[in-house]
Specification:
alpha+beta, about 230 residues, eight-stranded mixed sheet, about 20% strand, single chain, globular
Length: about 230
C-alpha cells in the first residue's frame, strides 16, 4: 500500500497523508506494528465503539465542539492512553484547549507548574476540537462571524509556545496528526476517518488509527525517539 501526498481509500476508510507527512509505506508499518497486542487493540475498539454507539444520536451536524468533546473525543483520548487537561493557561493571552500527557503520573508530576512552561514539559502533545460538521481546512470564525486563521495555524503557534512536537486536530469524525516541524505549512498532516472506522466496525483500520494517534505513538523515550517520529518523511 502506498500513501500519496493526497489520499486514497483503504477498504472503506479514507486515509490522507497530506504533504507526504509520513513515509510512503506508513500504513503498512502501522498495520504491522507491535505497539499493542491484538487483545489490547480489540479491547480499545470495543470501548470506543460502545461509547460511540451509545452517544451517536448526539453527534450530528449541529453538534458543537464542546459536545464533540463530551460525547466522543474525551473518551477516545482516554482509550488512546492520554491523560488530558482542559484550557490550560500559558502567558496572558493563550490557553491550550487540550494538553495531552501519556499517564496520570506525568500529569501529577507537573501540575504544580500550571500557568508556566514547566507544566508542559511533561506533556507529549496538544489537541484542538472543532464542531462535528466543521471543515478542518476552513478559517475559524470569531464571535462576530469574521473569519480568522485555520485551526492548524493556532496549533502551530501553540506547539512552538509549549515546545511540544505533536498536535491532534479533530471534529470527532476526522482526526489529523501534526508535527511541529511542518505544522506551519498547514497542509502537511496524517488524517484518518474515525467515524467510518467505527460505523463499519473496521478493526483492521482501527489498529492503524491507534498505532498512529495513541499516546504511545507520540511519547519520546530516553533516546529522544518515538514510533511516529520514525515514520516522518
Amino acid at each position: 500500500l502506498l500513501i500519496s501526498s493526497y489520499e486514497y481509500d483503504f477498504m472503506t476508510t479514507t486515509i490522507v497523508n497530506a504533504g507526504n507527512f509520513f513515509v510512503a509505506d506508513a500504513v503498512d508499518q502501522l498495520a504491522a506494528s507491535k505497539l499493542f497486542t491484538d487483545a489490547e487493540i480489540a479491547d480499545k475498539f470495543e470501548q470506543i465503539c460502545e461509547h460511540f454507539d451509545r452517544h451517536r444520536g448526539y453527534l450530528k451536524d449541529d453538534a458543537t465542539a464542546p459536545q464533540v468533546g463530551f460525547f466522543l473525543v474525551n473518551r477516545a483520548l482516554h482509550v488512546l492512553g492520554y491523560t488530558h487537561s482542559h484550557n490550560e493557561p500559558l502567558g496572558d493571552d493563550m490557553r491550550i484547549e487540550y494538553t495531552l500527557f501519556d499517564s496520570a503520573n506525568a500529569f501529577l508530576a507537573h501540575v504544580s507548574g500550571r500557568g508556566t512552561h514547566a507544566f508542559f514539559n511533561g506533556a507529549c502533545g496538544i489537541a484542538k476540537l472543532a464542531a462535528w460538521s466543521a471543515n478542518l481546512d476552513e478559517p475559524v470564525k470569531d464571535e462576530e462571524g469574521k473569519a480568522g486563521d485555520p485551526p492548524a495555524y493556532e496549533l502551530d503557534e501553540q506547539m512552538r509556545a509549549t515546545n511540544l512536537q505533536w498536535a491532534i486536530l479533530t471534529n470527532g469524525r476526522i482526526w489529523r496528526l501534526f508535527h511541529k516541524n511542518t505544522c506551519a505549512m498547514l497542509n502537511t498532516f496524517f488524517e484518518m476517518d474515525l467515524y467510518q472506522i467505527l460505523d463499519t466496525h473496521d478493526l483492521d483500520m482501527f489498529k492503524v488509527f491507534v498505532d498512529a494517534f495513541s499516546a504511545k505513538a507520540v511519547s519520546f523515550d530516553k533516546s529522544g525517539s518515538c514510533p511516529d517520529k520514525k515514520l516522518l518523511a
